[in-house]
DNA sequence: GCGATTCACTAAACCGGTCTAGCGACTGGG
DNA sequence: CCCAGTCGCTAGACCGGTTTAGTGAATCGC
């Protein structure tokens, strides 16, 4: 016999299909003695549930969906995303829930996938990332009425629960640190302007600069790519006077910027301090190692997974979850401005 | 009405469920006129197939499985893996097939997931990566009798079809290039010794060294992490005489090695040439930019996806597919040995 | 012109579970 | 002692598709 069904078990145990179903799912309706016998038979026959059959009856699909609208080729360069994925996996697989992943070209295609997976009962919930300014996906996901957790906040995300860290507070801590070192001309290589967190960081930097009486900070939007990171750094360093510190919204851009500084003969951290908003192995393997905001992206992924599983189990409990504010890890790429060529002993 | 079923369409079009099924799946059994009418009604009602119901009847699940046995946290640091994933996605989503991804702790758990997904009809096929020396997973996948494509070869992988690039040839081209530059002491930071491709590269390096009359090459096994890459580099550079060139099995390790060289005051490429076996954005954003083997990992992913979809459509057509041999991209990290401190103009 | 074949379509079984209605036996309260 | 309620279980509908057997009508061959 290829694959035993509950009917086979029922026959062998001398009970009905219904009794087997009750026993296997731990619900009332059978006596303890019978339950035990059924479980033993199921074990003997090496029975496994048929996920499709379960899903047909309106039950769980046993998977959650994550759809990313990016050019597929750029996925590989983002340590942040890869770490997040790892954390999600860890959180989900502990509960034997799989992750359906799909990368699409644009937001329209993304919405299409949401609709398809929902209508096909393929997933029990969604994870929404890369929140945009007026995000059209929120209305769609609300309409589909499947549990969804948004990564990012505290911006508007309709009735969907969110998991977020305080970007604003994080940016303020960076500016405070740089100002304490004596920096007055701080530049910012931002990400895609359509993203909510990009705008929040830009605003936080501007506010902090005013409060501390620094020069007006410039924020340059980019597409997060190493190419734009390098180009924008080149442009900033060609200015006069040039900034004494640059804050990068991603570590890939920060590393690219480091390369440009070396190429242009600008010593880091002697004449330019570099701070990355993301921390990953990248910031540690370059020289000088980068001062960076450490957020535990892996843990973040786990928390998102947990929040989503909770929302699936009981949608009424869903609520926003604020995670620990990222803390600044000081390494070798920051120093007081105008030190000139650093010596090894400094 | 929440979700139209074929019964709804049948009623509206005034035909039977069976006729609707025939029409929607493009199989004979209905006239062209009727087929067209049914399709129009389905379109109007915005009908979508219920994947679970389909799978129940023994049809396709519409997803393929990829299971990785690694500590989840290390997933994030591998550009190779992320690129591969992107390519897989691209190849699969073009055919509306989803990727079911799961990261587990060890091979035993991995095998367990294969069994579960197969018995639950959750996937139509598998992708097997990180081929080991005597890989226990092959027998399991053959037994499960689901289409599977192996990434890596041409080692033993039973009856399963494989997609592979010629690692041996690639390593030979690196050694030829370094030997032509004048290097005679070449070291190799290898990956996990249990992997087939690690052994193939080690053997290729040794063979090439003998053939070219170079000093016996040393291959140091690592776990692919930046930490071991740095530690092993430090040990190699402390030797006397130290190697004049190091070949790294991954770009993360190569970048880490670059940092160690800088820290120890060994100029690259003046006194040490560095070659990476993997190419990604990483190799381009560091200074000096790394000479690396360029394989189009994204395209590789697409090819694997294509091979698997082909095997699912018709298992008898499955056969090994050898992809283009990676070519060496020469950048700034390689030069003739013993040049001393390089000048900008060289 | 008549049987054989083809065609378009219907009715119903089927996949493997879940879930509800109902039934007989037992228990408890008054 | 009788009726109501609970317990343990069964029979069978049901989810939304696919697939097969069968039916009536049209077409074909000779």
Kindly describe this structure.
Two copies of one chain form a homodimer. With 346 residues, chain A is of the alpha/beta class. Chain A is 44% helix and 14% strand. Chain A has 13 helices and twelve strands. Chain A has helices at residues 6-13, 17-24, 32-44, 51-56, 79-93, 107-119, 136-144, 167-181, 196-212, 226-238, 251-263, 281-285, 297-313, and strands spanning 63-69, 98-104, 126-128, 148-151, 162-164, 186-189, 218-220, 245-248, 273-276, 291-294, 321-322, 327-329. The first copy, chain A, has a six-stranded parallel sheet, with helices on both faces. In chain A, strands 7-6-8-9-10-12 form a six-stranded mixed sheet, sandwiched between helices. The model of chain A is unreliable at 341-346 (pLDDT under 50). The interface between A and B is large, with 62 and 62 residues. Strand 2 of chain A pairs antiparallel with strand 2 of chain B, so a sheet runs across the interface. Chain B binds a DNA duplex (30 and 30 nucleotides) through residues 5-7, 15-22, 25, 28-31, 34, 49-50, 52-59.
